Every structure is written in structure tokens, then in C-alpha cells.
Amino acid sequence: MSASNPSTAILLTTYPGQRPLHETAKLAAAGGVPRNSAAELAHVLDADIIDNSNSATGSARVYRILTRLAGLPAALSAEVLLRGRSYRTVIAWADRLGLPLALVNKLIRRRQTLFMISVDLSHPKKAFFLRRLHVDRQMRAIICSSSVQIELVSEELGVPREKLHLIQPGVDTRFWQPGDRPGERRFCSVGSEARDWATFVAAVADVDAEVEVALGSIVLANPTGSEHPDNVQEAPESGTGVRLDPLELMKGTAGHKAYQRWLDQRRGAVPDRIRWYMQLKSPQLRNLYARSCFVVIPLHNVEFDAGYTTILEAMAMGKAVIVTRTRGQVDLVTEGEQGLYVDPANPAALRAAINRLLDSPEDAQRMGLAGRRLVEERYTLDGYIQQLADLVRQG
Fold this sequence. Notes:
- The chain has 2 domains: 8-170 and 380-394, Glycogen Phosphorylase B (Rossmann fold); 186-378, Rossmann fold, CATH 3.40.50.
- The protein has helices at residues 21-29, 37-45, 60-70, 72-82, 95-108, 124-131, 147-157, 197-204, 246-249, 256-266, 282-290, 308-316, 347-359, 361-378, 381-394; strands at 8-11, 48-50, 89-92, 113-118, 141-144, 164-166, 186-190, 210-215, 274-278, 294-297, 320-324, 339-342.
- It is of the alpha/beta class.
- It is built from 15 helices and 12 strands.
């Protein structure tokens, strides 16, 4: 995706098999997939997108060598420097891209207006760039989605507060919207990052309901061997699906070892009622939400806002949410209004919350409607893009 005479570039990572953004934009326009945030921002700012799928011809060899020797973030940072045209403004869409690029700019003393969209700067490897190397001095702004991260980065890493901006991502409310009323006693869980599946499985073992779990994201290994990573072995359009082995699906993810340890300690089988899916396409995931009475997001107690995307999608679909009250997930849900909070690593508390909403479908429906209203008022994709564009234009 390229604009005419652009002065702004958006730097982001794509993955093998991921659909090119220009194709995503076409499908989104037809309602087939949600709109992509980076593609929408590029359109609004008339910006180039630089990712590992469109390296410049003249620097392709350097790019491949750097990718092999130093990793993708370093290669993409070099790509910005090696491009023929000079970008006055760069928006790095992730810590793992923005931090190396800021360091490169510092080392070569290059003046460039750099914005970084951040997720988790409290991670020790990332924190080192700020606490020791002070690369924030090469950034115009760091955009965080979590108020907790703002406090941590300011107080513990020494980044000036005026450089930190809280802009919370939005969701495509045209794609994710309430559908038909769900069937009886069915709920789902979705996602991969920082998910506490051990607690979830222990909690639902004796729950009288149909349970479905959709694992996966674009960064996970694809066990199906299919061309695109958002394929699934069997699409659960009607609620029927294959019994997949969750341990096999989790291979290559951060939660795999923890889940394996839990299975070893439990020495029992995963409840048969749970249906596990891998890498659902967006319409399949929308159907999964639609037929659920509510959505459960079990989380490890991390310091960033894990589960953010799933929570927003669920609320946009008019679903109540049950969320682990972690250190980092505090901004979205108000207890008793859009959903329920439970303490981390507490299967009994999670089971009680699930049974409460199963036994009180009117409460689940009320919370779901409140969640949809909240998304429409505060967390739309268009609103998010406008806030980002306004900040960048201020320079």
C-alpha cells in the first residue's frame, strides 16, 4: 500500500500467510472481515505502510540478511533507513519495532519524528531500552492502551509523562455487532496471549453448559498446514466442531508449557464438553460470539491489558464478559455493568461467575447491551483512528 509522495510511514510486522493489507481493505469494504487499524490510519494520513511483505527492491538483500542475523525488528528498522524516499514521520506499530528504530536513530543521530504504539513496556527486555538507553528521547510520543502501563512507564522507567498518551484501541462496530439471540446455556472463550487455560478448564469441569474455545492469533504456529493461518480444521458455523487436542494446538505459544505442567499435576482428562478451535476466520469467530450467552476471558496476572481485543469484540457483539481482574486489565469493564471480574488463578470464583450468568440470562443480556453501548460511545475503530491521526498531525 503506497501513497503518492508520502512523508509518513507506518512500520508494522506481518507474518507468513497473513493476508496483504490491501486485500484486507477490500474484504472489509465488502463486510467480509473487520477493518484493519493500520490500513485505516494509512488511508487517513496518506501514509506508506512498511512491513516484511513489501521491502524495497534495492535493499531486499540487506533486508533478508538482517532478518536472518538480527531478527525481523532490526531488519524493518533498517528498511526505513534504506528506503529511497525520506520519511519525516514514522509510526512504529509495536514496541519490538519502535524501540530498535529509536536506538538506530540515536546511534546515527538521525532526526525523525517517531511515534510508537505500545503494548507492554514493563517487560524487562523492552524496559532496558528506556531505563538504560533512554531511547524515548528519540520519540515524539509513546501511545499506550492501558492506564496501568502509563503509570509504570512514567514512574519506573523514567519516561516524561507528557510524552505518554493514553489512546485506547477501538473495534469495528460495523463487523462486530449483535445478532440473533443465543441458544441456551452456551458460552465461549477466545484468545491466546496471557490466557490462563488451566484455571479455565478447572472452573468449567462441572459446569452444566456447552463450552467452546477459540485459540489462536496471527503470531501463532499454524498446525493445520493450510495456506492461511486463519483457517480451521472444521468451521463451527452451526455449533458443531471437531474435538481438537488443546495441548497440540498450543504448541509454539507462551502458554504451552504452563498448560502442560498443569495437566501433569492434574493427571486427568480435559472435560469432553469443551470444543477447541484453532485460528477461526473472522466470520466464524463472529458466529462463535453470536451463539454464546457470554464470553469468558481467563488471564494470568500480567501488567498489560491482555484480553483487550477479545473484550471489545465481545462487548461489540452485545455479550457480557467475565474477566480476570489482573494488574493490567482495569480500564474496560465496570463490575456488574458490562460484566463480572474474578480473582486470578481462582477456579472456584470463575465457576461461580459462570454459573451466575448461566442461571440469570436476563443479567447476561443486560450487561451485554451495556457493553455494546459503551463500545459505541467510547471504543469505535473510527474514533481510535481519529485520535491517532490528530496526535500525529500535531507533530
